């Protein structure tokens, strides 16, 4: 993994271990938005993964149904329409 990708993942891991346990569960998706961000960065690189993760966070709101939404094999800012379990 490249240095910049690791650098972007560090604050997400800090959030997962230091901040998230103090808050009530609120993510509407599985995997959670923070896990999605890490997986997207690992799979698609720093820039595209960051964009995918930010788009996912913006989709995570009370007006969406949520549900299973894994990181897709191809870059997209939209929800994964054909998730494979």
UniProtKB/TrEMBL annotation:
Keyword set includes Nucleotidyltransferase: no
Localization annotation: Cell membrane
The UniProt record lists the keyword Membrane: yes
GO CC field: plasma membrane
Domain of life: Bacteria
Membrane topology field: Peripheral membrane protein
Keywords: Cell membrane, Membrane
Principal location: membrane
The family this protein is said to belong to: Belongs to the UPF0161 family.
Job of this protein: Could be involved in insertion of integral membrane proteins into the membrane.
Alphabetized PANTHER family for the sequence: MEMBRANE PROTEIN INSERTION EFFICIENCY FACTOR-RELATED
Name assigned to this protein: Putative membrane protein insertion efficiency factor
């Amino acid at each position: 993994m490249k240095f910049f990708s690791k650098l972007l993942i560090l604050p997400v891991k800090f959030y997962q271990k230091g901040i998230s346990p103090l808050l009530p569960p609120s993510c509407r998706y599985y995997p959670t938005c923070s896990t999605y961000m890490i997986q997207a960065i690992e799979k698609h690189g720093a820039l595209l993964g960051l964009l995918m993760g930010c788009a996912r966070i913006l989709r995570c709101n009370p007006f969406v149904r949520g549900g299973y939404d894994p990181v897709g094999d191809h870059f997209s800012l939209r929800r994964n329409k054909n998730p494979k379990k």
